[in-house]
Design brief:
With 360 residues, the chain is of the alpha/beta class. Helix content is 43%, strand content 13%. The protein is built from 13 helices and eleven strands. β8, α7 and β9 form a beta-alpha-beta unit. The structure holds NADP nicotinamide-adenine-dinucleotide phosphate (NAP). The site of NADP nicotinamide-adenine-dinucleotide phosphate has 26 residues, from α12.
Amino acid sequence: MEIGRKNWVPEVVRTCRRRTALECPARIRGLTHTIVGAVISFVFGLDGYDTRDKTTASKPPESLSKKILNRDRATDRRTLAFSLGGDLRVSRLGYGNRQLTGPGIWGEPLDRGEAMRVLRRAIQLGVEFIDTADAYGPDVAEALTAEALHPYPTNLVIGTKAGMVRTGPGEWHPLGRPEYLRQQCELSLRRLRLERIDLYQLHRIDPLVAVEDQLGVLSDLQQEGKIRHIGLSEVSIEEIEAARRLITVASVQNRYNAVDRVADPVIDYCEREDIAFIPWFPLAKGELSDPEGVLATVALRLGATPAQVALAWLLARSPVIVPIPGTASIRHLEENLGARALALAPEDLSQLEGLGRSPS
Ligand SMILES: NC(=O)c1ccc[n+]([C@@H]2O[C@H](COP(=O)([O-])OP(=O)(O)OC[C@H]3O[C@@H](n4cnc5c(N)ncnc54)[C@H](OP(=O)(O)O)[C@@H]3O)[C@@H](O)[C@H]2O)c1
């Protein structure tokens, strides 16, 4: 992320806060935040710079559309790139390849040639982040990715996952035993023809295995150079914080889209902490692309399609969001990537505001 004068100062404060949050008791932390913020506000004359710790200060609720508008005004632009783990800069609209497998996310694609063409077209159109998993197929989506794209472009980041066992079409079971996660990592490296996986995500925390063991083996794999960054999937803020006491969390992948906003607090947390938030089901499994659906009027006003509105809204929602819409169709892929050029106006944002189900 490029950092201008208005942006790098808060970034310094955030870094100080993160460090003190790890190292100091709460009372010293509060005092440090206030002093650091006040000194920087005084020296640099930032208007209205808020020295309170935003994780604890009570403030009046702000509507989501206002939050987006205020942030865009402050940064003066919608940034369309994000640095995963701080060092892997990717264009923020990625591609999820789970739809390339057979029915029930099981077996080979119905049209293998089209699946390969979709993957190659995604790269031609500037996709720099592909999300996949050992469980998609299983094995099929990773193998297709390598077959279509290896040797990979240098700017491509592949995120894969482990921690789900498949027993048949539509059947998914968490399995986080360390020896299984290690085996799956070795197999993903082989299938993807990689020496190191850029982003390795724990598909689910297995409730039957100690979380320290699940994250411990990922940390070992990272130290051995087999994975670069670690991500989590379907986790609460409490789970992310517990994980961060053991590892560095580069990304969180939870279900989220314009009508399903249960993960709102997790996104706000990720934004504060500079963690990528990768929303799965960004199109609500295709429901949001319905030409007569809830996004139809906004789409009509903008001369766009409902799927593009759904994705543009996610890009506007937070600069840490990296959507990964899934499709097995080149036409849909091209349409979806068109969302990068779509800017939502204040009236669009306020119209979309009311669609979501936020946590009560
Ligand atoms: N971490 C997790 O637990 C988890 C769970 C689920 C998914 N994921 C990830 O999230 C990614 C996205 O999820 P998803 O693919 O299941 O759901 P999605 O992106 O919300 O929706 C995909 C569905 O929408 C349709 N579609 C896509 N673009 C369209 C368009 N422009 N017009 C009309 N229909 C369109 C697709 O059909 P067509 O193929 O016909 O285009 C497909 O049926 C997955 O690929 C995977 O990487 C992660």
